[in-house]
Amino acid sequence: MTAHLKAFLQFMRLNRNASVHTVRAYESDLSQFLADVAAHSGTKVADLGPAALDRHAIRRFVGELHQRGLSRASAARKLAAVRTFLRYLRREEIIGDDPGALVPTPKREVRMPAHLSEDEMGALLDAAQMLYLATRAGAEALGLENETGDFETGKAADVVYIRPPENTPLAAVLERVETPEQALAAIFTLAGSESVREVRVEGSIVYKGSVVYK
Question: Which CATH number fits domain 2-110: 3.40.1830.10, 3.20.20.70, 3.20.20.10, 1.10.150.130?
Fold first, then answer.
């Protein structure tokens, strides 16, 4: 399975133009998952067969993450990485089905912190990965990557414009961030409906300034 993981990471770099940080996040999450499966299978990661990556192995891995006190958001990110890897294996005809689709995503805690924690401020690579999974990866999963999923000319796109009101947690955090990636992490963590200023569906405005357009 080590060879398949290396091939997947190479695929993400070359075919999906994933950043170094995103590829590193995938490698970390998937190495942890494969090591867990190997430990329970009594074998080495390199000797793992595709059949070992089943729904029960995934559910056990997610359950153990919770037992170790990992946040639901982090567990959901790791599960997303596993699902992406399994979809790649299926596309390459290494596995015959998609066991990741049968495992529910952990529900995230509802909270509104006054500021980002150190872990959240360091979640740059998590945010970049989440953005990819919510856009390009989603289009690929539906077989629509030639129609949507990014801003390539000629593709359809739905866009949400964010501008948080003053004196909100998100506004305070955005004043302190130093990179676009940190801003992205803050938006994923803190943005709510009050921060949405405009929504466009396939280029047409459907919401702007509290007005909904038909």
Answer: 1.10.150.130
Summarised one tens digit per residue, pLDDT across range 29-42 is: 899 999 988 998 88
Q: Are 38 and 53 in contact (CB under 8 A)?
A: no
Decide the pairing of beta strands 204-208 and 158-162: unpaired
The pTM (predicted TM-score) of the whole model is 0.51
CA angle 130, 133, 134 (to 5 degrees): 85
Q: How far apart are CA 20 and CA 188, in angstroms?
A: 20
Q: Over 43-71, what HEC string results?
A: CCHHHCCHHHCCHHHHHHHHHHHHHCCCC
In this model, does residue 115 exceed pLDDT 70?
no
Count the neighbouring beta carbons within 10 Å of the beta carbon of residue 87. Answer: 17
